[in-house]
Amino acid sequence: KKEIEAPIIIIGSGYGGAVSALRLCEAGKKVIMLEMGMNWGKSGISYSNMLKPDKSAAWLKTKTIAPFFNIFGLKPFTGVLDRLDFEHINIWLGRGVGGGSLVNGGMAVTPKQKYFEEIFPNLDAEKFYNIYFPRAKQELKVNVIREDFLNDCPYYKFTRVGEAEAHKAGFKTMRVPNVYDFTYMEKEYKNEVPRSAFKTEVIYGNNHGKNSLDKTYLQKALDTGNLEIFDLHCVDDIKMNNDKSYTLNVNQIDTSGKTVAEKIFHCKQLILAAGTMGTLQLLLKSNAENNFPLHENVGKNWGNNGNFMTGRNWVKPLSGGTGAQQSTIPVGGVDNWDDPKHPFFAEIAPLPMGMDVATALYLQINKVDKKGSVYYKNGKLILDWNESHTQKMKENADYFIKKMNKANGGTRAHLLFKNGFGANICYHPLGGCVLGEATNEFGKLKNHDHLFVLDGSLIPGTIGVNPFVTIVALTEYCIENLINLNEFS
Ligand code: FAD
User: Fold this and answer.
1) Which superfamily, per CATH, for 2-484?
2) CB of 103 closer than 6 A to ligand 1?
3) Ligand 1: does its nearest atom lie under 6 Å from the Cβ of 204?
4) What is the pLDDT of residues 423-465, one digit of tens each?
């Protein structure tokens, strides 16, 4: 087996990994990043759109894995979208250089300060709202759609209808910032540049327009000359050596998923940024199989960020519905967070089917009253999570849909989900390695001297909004402090 020595290794190239890489590289450190997915930018292969799923559509599957309307006939390929299926919940993830930023809707939402303070009582919120959130938004290139464009553009009829109906039902709405470049979008509308958001591209990757991490943090880190990314390198497990350094067993795969080389990587400092589920898989598996030391809090305090999908069928079919043409980039949401009985945020989501299906789709984000936990048994990850954990979310969804239908007509979306509710749909797995519980105050894993967890698993299961801006801000905060404390010398 080929053996490779590196001072610092980062596992995973999503938000936590990309931010850590940039700040370490800027501090003059040499960094190796291991990513199981492909480097799409380098590959020359285009992303496919939702109406014509192809190579990028799914991670090594024969059938597409979008939340609805899936088709057979895929040839297994290392696509960008993956889904992990647990007994009561399905979790969607991004795979590739850029992690979740390649497949997500780009919604860049800063949490409400009051809720952030409730979730992270030990952090200095003023510092976050004055320094780390603004820094995150600047690096991610967050911008907001122009209202005039939104009001005129046929591709945003679903948002206009969604907002008007919400107002009629007595709800407040909010404009949602995004990392998709809205200047580019206006040009694509005028057909001055190739289309992406208006060509049903998003969950299988965007060929244009979206400022995913490969165009922001990772590009900047590569420009320092200190970062080397090994794509299609899947870390299987981790061992801690007697001198407290780490050894990783890694499989290099080809685009059909076949192992083409087995490699061993050694490093003094290790950053785990494999995303909530990837990080938990590596830690819990290594613990079960290699006696890897773990604190009892690893796997605890996990949540789905209150994700609950719901929708309405027959949204004014006779007066034009939600529109045949839909942008894939959401820009609006229903903000009911301040309602003490039914606090939730609901993204007004597109359903770009290429025809008017007169259906409104919402991804609700609720509080998580009952947290779950994750453990490893019989060679696989198990999630302690069932209907009891989503009961309150279901009540909120029911309240929301009933109120919307009463004011506007329509029915619960039985065509999209069993019983009209998608309790099992999760895009935002969070927690399991919670900051200050499984780690120290800056992400160093308890019982370890040189292992740092920097990704969504630091957030205790809920943050009240789409999470990547918070993951970026938290990583900026942790890595700045870790570098200042000479943890990487
Ligand atoms: P990730 O971004 O998941 O990155 C982890 C990386 O590690 C992946 O590239 C993975 O392939 C790699 N990896 C894992 N295990 C291994 C291993 N063993 N070896 C090597 N590499 C490994 N959030 C928002 O804020 N706004 C949105 O609009 C939004 N929309 C979403 C839409 C979809 C369809 C999905 C799936 C998610 C969405 N999210 C959104 C969630 C957001 O993308 C995630 O919260 C975020 O990507 C998590 O960041 P992370 O750094 O924790 O890990």
Assistant:
1) FAD/NAD(P)-binding domain (3.50.50.60)
2) yes
3) no
4) 999 999 999 999 999 999 999 999 999 999 999 999 999 999 9
